[in-house]
Specification:
7 strands, 65% helix, single chain, Arc Repressor Mutant, subunit A, Rossmann fold, two-stranded antiparallel ribbon, five-stranded parallel β-sheet
Length: 917
C-alpha cells in the first residue's frame, strides 16, 4: 500500500528513534481504523530503522492466538537475534508460565504473583539486546494480544524511557479500547506517545491516483474518495481495478473484484461485532430494526455504526456504493445469507413493515409454510404487478403459490400469475388457461378477474371459452354488480375493437342494458364513449377522434385500460390523423417500456403509422423490433398485424422472398375474426399481386371487403380494399369492374381524408383515358402531398410519368419520373416497384405501344433475358422451366423482376421485345 499523507507521522517516529539512540527510548501506539495504513506505516518505519543501524523485532497479535498464553512473546523469541540456547531456555520459562497460570486459573491475582518473576526474566532477555544498540519492537494489532504477553509489553513500555528501546504498537482507534490499561499506562509515562491516523483527504486521494495512473486520473479523485471514504486500503484497491481495466474509464470509476475483496478484508480485520453489524445492515438496508435483527444492545449497534463510518465503509447508515453492500452479502455462505433474510423477514413483518420489503427477504431466504408468508408474498406480488414490475411480481407470486395451502387463495394467485406472465410472454400464460377456465366454471373468478381472463382468451383466439367468460361476467339482471359492470366497461373498447362480431352479438343480449345501470360513477365515461370506434362511420369521425384524444390524455397504466389506449391510437390512425397517432404512440411506447406485450403492440402500431406515411425503413425497423421483443408464438391472433405490416413493407421494398417466408407462418384461425385479419389479407393480397397471382390477390381483397362490411368497418381509411381489388382486376383485364370499385370508393372519401382520397384517385386514374388520367393523378398527388404519404406519392408520380409519356409530353414525363425515383429512394421503395401497378396498357390508349428496344434488354440480367425471350415467344412457365432446367417458381420470380424493370404489367407486353418479332 502506498504511504500518502503520513509524512508527519514518519517524521515523529524518526525523532523518537534518534532519541532512543541517545538512550531515551519511547513507547508509541499507532491508532487508526482498519485499512488506514497502520501496518504499512509500522513496517516502513521498522525498515528505515534497520537501515539506520537499529535492531528490529516484529510480531502480529492475532485473534486465533488470543487465548494462547505468551503466543506473542513466542513470536518475538523466534527471531534469529536470539541464539539456540537462549531460545531453548526461554521456551522452558514460557512453558513454566503457562503451567503456573493453569494451576492458579481460578484466582487471577494468584496467577499474576506466580508468573511475575518469570515474565521479568523474559523481558530482561529482550532488554539485553539494547546493550548492542537501539532495539525497535513492532507489535501489530495489539488489541488481540493475550493477557500474559500484555503484561510483558507493559513491563517493556515502562522501562523504555531509560533504555535504547522503541516499542511501537498498532491498534484500532476506538473510544472503547480492548486494553484500556495499556493506554492508561502509556499516556501516564512521559515517554509514552500516541498517533492517530486519519483517512485520506481529497488531495491525498488525488495524489495516489496521479502517482499510479498518471495526471489524467486526477478527475477521478472526488468519485474515488466518495466510494472509498478516503480509506487507503480501498483507495489503492480502486486504483488496482482501474489498472486491470486497461484504460481510464470515460464515464466513472471501474469497481471490480479488487474493491470488493479489500472491503471484505477491511471488515474481517475489525472486531467481530462490526462485521456482524455490517452484515445486518447489508441485509436490512437501514438500522431501524438492526439491533432486533442481530439481538444486540442498541448502544453497541450505534457505536458499531460510528466505527464503520470512521473506517470509510459507511456514509451515515448507508454503504458508500452498492458494490460494497453486494461484497458484504457475497462473503456470506448461502446458509448464512438465507438465515439472515429469514430473520429479517420475520422481524420486519412483526413490526408492520411494507409487504414488499418483507417479501424481498422471504424470496432470499428459505421461508416457512406459515400462512403469513404466503399472504405477504401474495400482497407484494399484486402491488408489483400493479406498478408494472413484472420480474418481481412473478418472483413473489410463484413463491406465494408454492407456500399457499388455501385453494381459493391459490386460484386468485394463479390469476395474478397469468397476468404477470401474459405481460412478459402470452404464450406462457396460455398454458394456465385450462385451470383458470375451470376456476371460472366453479365460480371462483369475478369482476376484473373475469374481464382479464376474457382478454387473454381472446388474444389467444379461444373464442368459445371467451364467450363463456363473458356470460359469467355479464351474468343476468339479478346478478350483475358494480364490480362486473366496471370490469366490462374497462374491457369494452378492446373487445369491441378486437372482435367486432362477438361484441355486436354481446350487445344484443338483454342483460347488456343492466351493465349501464350497475356501472359505478367512478368509471371513466370516455371508456363507454370510445366503444363505438369499432363501428365507425364518416359522420361520427370527429366525435370519435375527440373521444380517442380524451382517453389518451388519461395516460392509463391499468392492464385492461392500456388496451383501450391502443384502440384509441387505432382510431386516430383509421381517421387519417397520423400525426396525432404518431405522437401518442411514441408516448405510450416510452411508458410501456419493460411490459413486453404492450411495448411490442405500440411498436408495431408505430410501424403501421410509418408505413402509412411512406417511411418504409422506419416501419421495417419498428416491425422487426416488435417481433424481436415478442416472438410470434406470444402474439396470439394479433400476430397478423406485425406480419402484415412487415409483408407490406418488404413487398414495397421488393424483398419478395422474405415476404413469402413470413406469409408461410401459420396463423391462428381466429385471426380472421379480428381487424388484424383485415390487414393480413391486404398484405397477402399485395404480395400475390406483386408476384402476378392476380386472382389470388383479388380473392384476398374481396374477403377483406366482405368482413369490413359485415363488421360495419367499411372505411377506406382503414383499408382501401376496393382500390386494392381494382389493381387485381386490371391485372386480370377486367377494366369495368376495376372502374366500378374505384368509383364506389371515391364516393366514400371526402376531401377531409386526403390520404384515402389520394389513393382512390390514383386507382381510378388507371382505368381512365389518358387526358382524364393525367388530371386525376394530379389531383391524387395534391391529396397525397397533403397527407404526407411519400410511398403512395412515388407511385402516383410514376403513374403520371407514364400517362404523360403516353400523351407525348416527354419533358413533363421525365420530371414526374425524376420525382418518383427521388421519393422512392427517400422512403425506401424499390425503384423497380414504383412501376409495378402503374397503367401501361389502357382501355383507351392514346398512342400505339412501341417495340421495346435493345436498350430495355440491357437492364435485365442474363437469366432474366433468357426467361423474357422465351416468354415473349409464347412459352408457358413450365415449358420455360424445363428448357432452362430451373423450377417454375424461379421462372415466376424472374418474370416479376422483368415486369418491374421494363415497366410492363402483363405477359402480353413481352410481345414488344425484339426477340419476339
Amino acid at each position: 500500500m502506498t504511504l500518502t499523507e503520513r509524512e508527519e507521522h514518519l517524521a515523529l517516529m524518526s525523532r523518537l528513534l534518534s532519541a532512543a539512540h541517545r538512550g531515551t527510548g519511547a513507547a508509541l501506539v499507532l491508532r487508526g481504523p482498519a485499512g488506514s495504513g497502520r501496518t504499512t506505516l509500522l513496517r516502513t518505519f521498522a525498515s528505515q530503522a534497520t537501515h539506520a543501524g537499529a535492531q528490529a523485532l516484529y510480531a502480529v497479535a492475532t485473534r486465533s492466538e488470543q487465548n494462547f498464553s505468551l503466543g506473542l512473546m513466542d513470536q518475538l523469541f523466534h527471531n534469529t537475534r536470539f541464539d539456540h540456547d537462549v531460545r531453548s531456555r526461554l521456551a522452558t520459562v514460557m512453558a513454566e508460565c503457562r503451567l503456573r497460570e493453569t494451576l492458579h486459573a481460578s484466582d487471577p491475582d494468584a496467577v499474576s504473583l506466580a508468573v511475575a518473576p518469570l515474565l521479568r526474566e523474559l523481558c530482561s532477555e529482550i532488554l539485553t539486546l539494547t546493550h548492542d544498540g537501539v532495539l525497535v519492537i513492532g507489535i501489530d494489532d495489539v488489541r488481540n494480544v493475550d493477557e500474559l504477553s500484555l503484561q510483558c509489553l507493559l513491563f517493556l513500555a515502562n522501562r523504555a524511557g531509560s533504555a535504547r528501546l522503541l516499542l511501537v504498537m498498532t491498534d484500532w482507534d476506538r473510544p472503547r479500547q480492548a486494553h484500556p490499561v495499556l493506554t492508561a499506562e502509556l499516556l501516564h509515562q512521559p515517554h509514552g506517545h500516541q498517533i492517530r491516523l486519519p483517512l485520506l483527504s481529497l488531495e491525498g486521494v488525488r495524489s495516489i491516483l496521479t502517482d499510479r495512473l498518471g495526471s489524467a486520473a486526477a478527475g477521478l479523485a472526488e468519485e474515488c474518495r466518495r466510494i472509498s471514504g478516503g480509506n487507503p486500503l480501498l483507495v489503492n484497491a480502486l486504483v488496482q481495478d482501474q489498472c486491470g481495466s486497461g484504460q481510464l474509464p470515460a464515464d466513472g470509476i471501474v469497481i471490480g473484484d479488487g474493491y470488493a475483496e479489500a472491503l471484505v478484508s477491511c471488515l474481517y480485520r475489525c472486531e467481530p461485532s462490526l462485521l456482524k453489524i455490517a452484515r445486518g445492515l447489508a441485509t436490512l438496508g437501514d438500522s431501524t430494526l438492526l439491533s432486533t435483527l442481530l439481538d444486540m444492545n442498541p448502544s453497541v449497534v450505534a457505536h458499531g455504526i460510528d466505527a464503520l463510518q470512521a473506517t470509510g465503509v459507511l456514509d451515515g447508515e448507508q454503504f458508500r456504493h452498492p458494490a460494497a453492500r453486494a461484497a458484504v452479502l457475497g462473503a456470506l455462505t448461502p446458509e448464512e445469507r438465507a438465515l439472515l433474510h429469514q430473520r429479517a423477514a420475520r422481524v420486519l413483518h412483526e413490526h408492520g413493515a411494507a409487504v414488499t420489503s418483507v417479501a424481498h427477504h422471504l424470496v432470499e431466504s428459505a421461508p416457512t409454510d406459515e400462512p403469513w408468508c404466503a399472504d405477504v408474498l401474495h400482497q407484494a406480488g399484486t402491488l408489483a404487478l400493479d406498478s408494472g414490475d413484472l420480474p418481481r411480481a412473478l418472483t413473489f407470486l410463484r413463491l406465494s403459490e408454492q407456500l399457499c395451502h388455501d385453494e381459493n387463495q391459490r386460484e386468485t394467485i394463479r390469476m395474478l400469475l397469468a397476468s404477470a406472465e401474459w405481460h412478459v410472454d402470452p404464450s406462457t400464460a396460455e398454458r394456465r388457461m385450462p385451470e383458470l377456465t375451470a376456476a371460472m366454471r366453479r365460480g371462483s373468478l369475478r369482476g376484473m378477474q373475469l374481464a382479464v381472463l376474457t382478454k387473454y382468451l381472446l388474444w389467444s383466439g379461444q373464442t368459445e371459452q371467451a364467450r363463456e367468460a363473458l356470460h359469467h361476467l355479464t351474468g343476468s339482471p339479478t346478478t350483475t354488480g358494480a364490480e362486473d359492470a366496471a370490469a366490462m366497461a374497462k374491457a369494452q373498447p378492446w373487445l369491441a375493437f378486437m372482435y367486432p362480431a362477438l361484441f355486436a352479438e354481446l350487445r344484443r343480449r338483454p342483460e347488456w342494458s343492466e351493465l349501464d345501470s350497475a356501472l359505478p360513477a367512478t368509471v371513466d365515461p370516455q371508456l363507454r364513449a370510445i366503444a363505438p370506434i369499432a363501428e365507425s362511420d364518416p359522420e361520427s369521425k370527429n366525435a370519435q377522434v375527440q373521444h380517442a384524444e380524451q382517453l389518451l390524455q388519461r395516460q392509463y397504466v391499468d392492464d385492461l385500460l392500456v388496451g383501450s389506449s391502443a384502440v384509441a391510437v387505432s382510431t386516430l390512425v383509421y381517421h387519417d390523423r397520423l400525426d396525432r397517432a404518431s405522437y401518442w404512440c411514441d408516448r405510450l411506447l416510452r411508458k410501456a417500456s419493460g411490459a413486453r406485450v404492450w411495448e411490442s403492440m405500440f411498436r408495431v402500431m408505430r410501424a403501421s403509422i410509418s408505413g402509412r406515411t411512406g417511411d418504409l425503413r422506419t416501419a421495417e425497423r419498428h416491425a422487426r423490433a416488435a417481433l424481436s421483443v415478442l416472438p410470434i408464438p406470444g402474439w396470439g391472433v394479433v400476430a397478423g398485424l406485425p406480419i402484415a405490416v412487415l409483408v407490406m413493407v418488404l413487398t414495397g421494398m421488393g424483398e419478395l422472398e422474405e415476404a413469402a417466408g413470413l406469409l408461410n407462418i401459420n396463423m391462428r384461425p381466429a385471426l380472421f375474426e379480428t381487424p388484424f385479419g383485415l390487414h393480413y389479407l391486404q398484405a397477402r393480397g399485395r404480395y400475390h399481386l406483386a408476384v402476378n397471382h392476380a386472382e389470388i390477390a383479388l380473392s384476398d381483397f374481396l374477403l377483406c371487403g366482405d368482413l369490413m362490411r359485415r363488421w360495419k368497418l367499411d372505411l377506406p381509411t382503414i383499408i382501401p380494399w376496393r382500390s386494392e381489388a381494382a389493381k387485381a382486376c386490371r391485372a386480370m383485364g377486367d377494366w369495368d369492374r376495376a372502374r366500378q370499385l374505384c368509383e364506389e370508393e371515391l364516393a366514400m372519401v371526402d376531401t377531409g381524408l386526403p390520404r384515402a382520397r389520394g389513393i382512390t384517385l390514383r386507382a381510378l386514374a388507371a382505368t381512365s383515358p389518358v387526358p382524364l388520367r393525367i388530371e386525376q393523378l394530379r389531383s391524387s398527388i395534391k391529396h397525397l402531398q397533403t397527407a404526407g404519404d411519400r410511398s403512395e406519392l412515388a407511385h402516383a408520380y410514376a403513374d403520371l410519368s407514364q400517362a404523360q409519356r403516353a400523351a407525348g409530353r416527354t419533358a413533363e414525363a421525365d420530371e414526374a419520373l425524376r420525382q418518383a425515383r427521388a421519393l422512392a429512394v427517400e422512403c425506401g421503395l424499390s425503384p423497380e416497384m414504383i412501376h409495378l401497378t402503374g397503367p401501361t396498357s389502357t382501355p383507351v390508349p392514346a398512342v400505339e405501344p412501341a417495340v421495346l428496344g435493345f436498350d430495355a434488354l440491357a437492364v435485365l440480367s442474363e437469366a432474366e433475358q433468357r426467361v423474357a425471350e422465351l416468354a415473349a415467344r409464347g412459352r408457358t412457365n413450365r415449358e420455360i422451366a424445363n428448357e432452362l432446367f430451373v423450377t417454375v417458381s424461379t421462372v415466376e420470380q424472374h418474370l416479376t423482376r422483368v415486369y418491374r424493370k421494363l415497366s410492363i404489367s402483363n405477359r402480353s407486353d413481352l410481345g414488344r421485345l425484339p426477340a419476339a418479332r
